[in-house]
Amino acid sequence: MTLQHGHILELSEKHKRLEETIHAEMAHPDWDEVRVAALKKEKLRVKDELERLRSSVH
Asked: In whole angstroms, what is the distance from residue 1 CA to residue 20 CA?
Protein backbone atom coordinates (compact mmCIF):
# COMPACT_ATOMS: atom_id res chain seq x y z
CA MET A 1 0.00 0.00 0.00
CA THR A 2 1.35 3.40 -0.89
CA LEU A 3 1.55 6.27 1.51
CA GLN A 4 -1.20 8.04 -0.44
CA HIS A 5 -3.55 5.04 -0.13
CA GLY A 6 -2.84 4.93 3.60
CA HIS A 7 -3.72 8.60 3.88
CA ILE A 8 -6.95 8.03 1.94
CA LEU A 9 -7.92 5.23 4.34
CA GLU A 10 -7.08 7.42 7.34
CA LEU A 11 -9.17 10.29 6.00
CA SER A 12 -12.05 7.94 5.19
CA GLU A 13 -12.07 6.75 8.81
CA LYS A 14 -11.92 10.32 10.07
CA HIS A 15 -14.87 11.25 7.81
CA LYS A 16 -16.85 8.30 9.18
CA ARG A 17 -16.04 9.23 12.81
CA LEU A 18 -17.09 12.84 12.17
CA GLU A 19 -20.41 11.64 10.71
CA GLU A 20 -21.01 9.46 13.77
CA THR A 21 -20.09 12.33 16.12
CA ILE A 22 -22.49 14.68 14.32
CA HIS A 23 -25.34 12.17 14.59
CA ALA A 24 -24.58 11.53 18.27
CA GLU A 25 -24.45 15.25 19.02
CA MET A 26 -27.75 15.92 17.24
CA ALA A 27 -29.43 13.05 19.11
CA HIS A 28 -29.26 15.09 22.32
CA PRO A 29 -32.25 17.36 22.91
CA ASP A 30 -30.01 20.33 23.74
CA TRP A 31 -27.40 19.82 21.00
CA ASP A 32 -24.92 22.61 20.34
CA GLU A 33 -25.49 24.21 16.93
CA VAL A 34 -22.05 25.82 16.91
CA ARG A 35 -20.31 22.51 17.64
CA VAL A 36 -22.33 20.69 14.97
CA ALA A 37 -21.57 23.42 12.44
CA ALA A 38 -17.84 23.13 13.21
CA LEU A 39 -18.00 19.34 12.88
CA LYS A 40 -19.82 19.61 9.55
CA LYS A 41 -17.24 22.10 8.28
CA GLU A 42 -14.41 19.74 9.25
CA LYS A 43 -16.25 16.82 7.63
CA LEU A 44 -16.56 18.80 4.39
CA ARG A 45 -12.85 19.70 4.51
CA VAL A 46 -11.97 16.01 4.92
CA LYS A 47 -14.33 15.06 2.07
CA ASP A 48 -12.74 17.63 -0.23
CA GLU A 49 -9.26 16.37 0.59
CA LEU A 50 -10.38 12.77 0.01
CA GLU A 51 -11.75 13.67 -3.41
CA ARG A 52 -8.55 15.52 -4.30
CA LEU A 53 -6.39 12.55 -3.28
CA ARG A 54 -8.60 10.02 -5.03
CA SER A 55 -8.53 11.99 -8.27
CA SER A 56 -4.73 12.21 -8.15
CA VAL A 57 -4.47 8.41 -7.74
CA HIS A 58 -6.51 7.67 -10.88
From this structure: 27
pLDDT for the residue numbered 1: 60
Please tell me whether the overall predicted TM-score, pTM, comes out greater than 0.90 for this model.
no
Q: How many domains does one find in the chain?
A: 1
Distances (CA, A) of 10 to 2, 6, 21, 24, 38: 12, 6, 16, 21, 20
Tally the C-alpha atoms within 13 A of residue 39's C-alpha that lie toward its C-beta: 19
CA distances from 11 to 23, 32, 57 (A): 18, 25, 15
